[in-house]
Amino acid sequence: MGRVRTPVPARDSYLRAWSVTHGGYDPATGGALVRRWLGLTYLLARPLAALGAPPAAVTAVAAALPALALAPAAAGGRWPLLAGVIVLASAVLDSLDGAVAILRDRVSPAGFVLDSVADRVADALYLIALWLLGAPGWLAVAAAAALFLLEYTRARAGNAGFGEIGVVTVGERPTRVILTVVGLLAAGVLPGLREPVAAVATAAVLAVAVVGLGQLAAVLRRVLRRR
Question: Could you list the residue ranges that cross the membrane (predicted)?
C-alpha cells in the first residue's frame, strides 16, 4: 500500500489562515515580494503537509541545520560557499514549519514558542559561523546582543497587546540571514579576504539590528502614548 496523503487546503485558504495567525495582516495589501514569498512557501510546504510531516520536526531540522555550516565556515578556501548554501537552505526550511502547521491545521501556542526558540538557536549559529569565518569575537557578541534585544523587545510588545506584525524594521530576520549568506559566499569567492569580509558581514548584522531596535522603539513609544 502507498503512503496515505493528507488533503491540503488550496492556496487562497492557506493565505486566509496565514493572515489570521499574523495579526490579520492581509498579504494582498503587502508588496509583491511578500506575495511571491508566501506563494513559494505554500508550494514548498504543500508536499510536506500532504505527507503528514509534523511541524515540530520541520522546526527542529531548520534549527539544527545551521550547525552543519560551522565546519565549512571554519575550513577556509572555497568551503564557505557550502556554508552559505546551508544557511540559505536552513532559512528556507525555517519558513516552512509555520506553513506546514497552517496547512495541517496544527497551529498552536506550543508550536509558536518552539519556532521562536528555534529561530534564536539558528541566529546564534549564524553568528558563530561568521566568527569561525574570521569576524572578531567581540563583534559577534555585540551583534548577538543587539539582535536578541530586538527580538525580545518585539516579543514583549506582542505580549502587551502590540500587533505581531507591528512594524517591519530594517533588522528583520530575513535581512540578517541575507547578510550572513552574502558574507559566507563572498568569503568563499575571495578566500584571501575572508577575515575582513566576515567582519563587514557581522558589523552589518549589528548595524541593522541596532537600527531596527530604534525603529521598533519609536513605533512602540507612539503607540503607548495614544493609550
Answer: 48-69, 81-104, 124-150, 177-193, 199-220
Predicted confidence band of residue 6 (pLDDT cuts 50, 70, 90) = low
1 within some domain: no
| 6 within a domain of the structure (yes/no) | no
H-state helical runs in 104-170: 109-133, 137-159
Domain assignment present for 5: no
The Cα 146–Cα 210 span in angstroms is: 6
Q: How many domains does the chain have?
A: 1
**Average pLDDT, stretch 190-207?**
97
DSSP 29-58: GS-HHHHHHHHHHHHHHHHHHHTT--HHHH
Q: What is the CATH number of the domain that holds 47?
A: 1.20.120.1760
Single-letter amino acid code for the residue at 117? V
What are the pLDDT digits (tens) for 133-143? 999 999 999 99
Question: What pLDDT, on the 0 to 100 scale, is given for residue 212?
Answer: 93
- CA 145 from chain centre, in angstroms, equals 17
Q: What is the DSSP letter of 170?
A: T
Contacts of residue 142, Cβ cutoff 8 Å, sequence gap at least 6: 206
H or E segment and range at residue 211: helix 194-226
